[in-house]
Amino acid sequence: MIWDKKGVIFNVKGQHAWNKSHAQCPVVDMVTDSMWRIYYSSRNAKGQSQISYIEVEAGNPEHILYEHPDFLFSLGEPGTFDDSGVMPSSIVSHHGKKYMYYIGWTIKQTVPYHNAIGLAVSLDNGKTFEKMYKGSIMPSTHLEPYFTGTSYVMIENKLWRMWYLSCVKWLEIEGKMEPYYHIKYAESTDGIHWNREGIIAIDFKDANEGGIVSASVLKEDGIYKMWYAYRKASEYRVNKFSAYRIGYAESVDGISWKRKDQEAGIDISKEGWDSMMQSYPNVVRFKNKKYLFYNGNGFGETGFGYAIL
Questions:
Q1: Confidence bin at 176 (pLDDT 50/70/90)
Q2: What is the mean pLDDT of residues 20-30?
Q3: What span, in angstroms and rounded, lies between the C-alpha atoms of 218 and 271?
Q4: Is 83 exposed, middle or buried (0-12, 13-18, 19+ CB in 10 A)?
Q5: Cα Rg for the chain, rounded, in angstroms?
Q6: What's the start-to-end Cα distance of the chain, in Å?
Q7: How far is Cα 254 from Cα 81, in angstroms, rounded to an integer?
Q8: CA distances, 94 to each of 99, 100, 250 (Å)
Q9: pLDDT (average), residues 98-122
Q10: Which residues of 250-267 are buried (b: 16+ CB within 10 A; e: fewer)?
Q11: In this structure, is the dihedral angle defined by the CA atoms of residues 122, 91, 56 and 70, taken in order, positive or negative?
Q12: How do residues 191-205 score in pLDDT, each as one tens digit?
């Protein structure tokens, strides 16, 4: 597997109060054979994220057709799981509706933040969204007491399947509380109520690894293929050897996975927008080609770009 990197295609211009920096977590919805809608999150001056989108030519995403001038929905009410930021994570079409699974942020005192998964629904093919609930559909539980985050959802034979970030602990490293998270698996019959049995899909490969994030799954010839990003436990913000890289795994059932990071086929560039890190992959298949959208340096501070397999 070798990806041909095409470079960065979009970053915010900071012309609005809500988009002062970052174009993070690109999520592609292949709306038609001529147009794709790419959702992303941007940050305001306080660092709070909001979700917006651009529309691009299908198969030629450098050609931006439309840039939405506003964010899609407001932050949550004070005290709710998404009162400090929202980010897109996965989008599913079902019975004429678009289901957007998103990450909600809130601030804590003993640790820097808490995340959970929310759900918003569109009735106009993804142009506008309304939150389904004030609360998270994947909150902390007695078995998963920390947080949930990025998710990827697909419907297969009426079964909703989710691969989601699950935090397992916080540790103080060099005076800063750092989260450890990997990817777990859950199932649902309606996309709202999820059966969570703590099944680990992608686990840490050693004690030095600290984060596995943003599953993106395709099924080809009976094989499930997942792209994700992984990082070390410390110095991942400042050291390119510890920062996020894109990984790859395969499975015959979507539940038990084998990591094959050496086959990911993409790495950081020698210089430029993705010379330190690559993260938040989103892979789509179009006309027998695969397109990998991802963030580079600064967790999306340099925008998002893509590569073709």
A1: very high
A2: 98
A3: 30
A4: middle
A5: 18
A6: 7
A7: 29
A8: 7, 11, 26
A9: 98
A10: ebeebeebebeeeebebe
A11: positive
A12: 999 999 999 999 999
